[in-house]
Amino acid sequence: MKxxxxxxxxxxxSVTRQLTAKxxxxxxxxxxxxxxxxxxxxxxxPLITDxxxxxxxxxxxxxxxxxxxxxxxDTLIEEIQAADTLVIGAPMYNFAVSSLLKAWIxxxxxxxxxxxxxxxxxxxxxxxxxxxxxxARGGSYEKGSPAENFDFQEPxxxxxxxxxxxxxxxxxxxxxxxxxxxxxxxxxxxxxxxVAAQQTRQSAPRGLS
Length: 209
Known about the structure:
alpha/beta; two-stranded antiparallel sheet; 7 strands; 20% strand; disordered C terminus
């Protein structure tokens, strides 16, 4: 089994980095599998420029320049394809995802690689994988609360992951990190990720959560 550990905070001591590391340790102990680490703060993520039009070309028509431009996208997609489970550290910045995580998403949502279009519309190609998203948030955005409408992080990630076939998605939120309840929320998130890591070995993809 393989786990892709993806960190998207540029802060070395971030809460999400601490929690993804704990998840990876628990997962490794539970499964004996291999952990693939991808630190987006240390990855050169190309901008989506006119060169992205190369993704609509057949492989035989790609120039050396095209292949060089798409090399990062190819590598990131291959990492996902090789993994059975993904754990993603996702800090909330200004009610949404970090720029690093958005740049990674732009590289891995790709026609013919992770999504295709047929008679019934778009079909995701990355099936049969579990995704654990661990967030850190300064406030709380619980379902049914007035603040829920300000959460553009979880709904966006659920939608874009579903678009590319990743439908078995679990969110673990370390909320209130700028408030007095930070320690309690962090302890709860740590216990949730421990349980999720241990369940990975026994569970097949469970569909939308």
